[in-house]
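Risk register update: the risk of archive-format incompatibility is retired. Evidence:
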Amino acid sequence: MKKWIPLFSAGGAKDNSPPRQSWVVGGGISSPSRGERNIHPPLFCRSFRGLACLRPETHGFAVGYFRSLLRSFKWILVLFATFSFVGNLFAADVASNFSAANKLYAEGKFADAAGLYENILKTGAQSSALLFNCGNAEFKSGHLGRAIAAYQRAALLSPRDAEVRANLAFVREQIQGATRHESRWQYWLGQLTLNEWTLLAATAFWLTFLLLVARQIRPALGAKLKNATFVFATLTVLSVAALGLQAAEHFSKQTAVVIAPEATARSGPFDEAQNAFTAHDGAELTVLDRRSDWIQVTDGAGKIGWVQTKQVEILPGA
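Archived output:
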């Protein structure tokens, strides 16, 4: 058995024993008394340094901090539950009104159905089916302009919907007088939404990038990947160009659809100005400028004039 070998005796003789630590127990963890050298804390205590090892002087702060976090989390849950409940009520109300409008349409009450569809749209609800039904009800009510506006907005959401395209083309044939016509390249670009063009361009770009990286890492695959790289690089250029054209068409150009039986375009933005031309219900005009309650437009014949905003419906993002 090992024993301590004294290096210094009690009377000052040399004692070989290492200095003893006098311990003070506090808070369940033993520590050297004041004036003695510190030793390393226990291993289980080191892993909790972020909480100051739960020392008594910081324990109250940590508990208060966690309690505040729990209170915040509870409020977040309450808000989330409230928004979910309100959202469900709103969705149920929209679905109920949509069914009621469909019933009115089936009963032949087209004007009432159109009004109910419009009320749903005013709440912010948007869907291709809602706009399509609204366009049908407006057309049956004799409102060609409102029908075209609804079909146009439905086409923005579902550009490849054959029924929307067919009804829009049919109503356009009923319009009298000059109107703006869609060009072939606009029709082609309109087959995809702006988000779809963005996704296509991004996908083509990253595939081209990955193919180029693969050819650099494995030169032996260069010949095999050459054609694929060329195809995707070409697709990237074309999709980016189409995206740019679609974005310019979407953000820089606006279309106004006449919703009044007749809209008189004047030479200036005031009632006393001379008449420039007359646009009929359903005519689609290109917006050039806007001043207060007037917009400057041009028709399909190249005539330019100012019409009041209450006589037209400006298509969003058109």
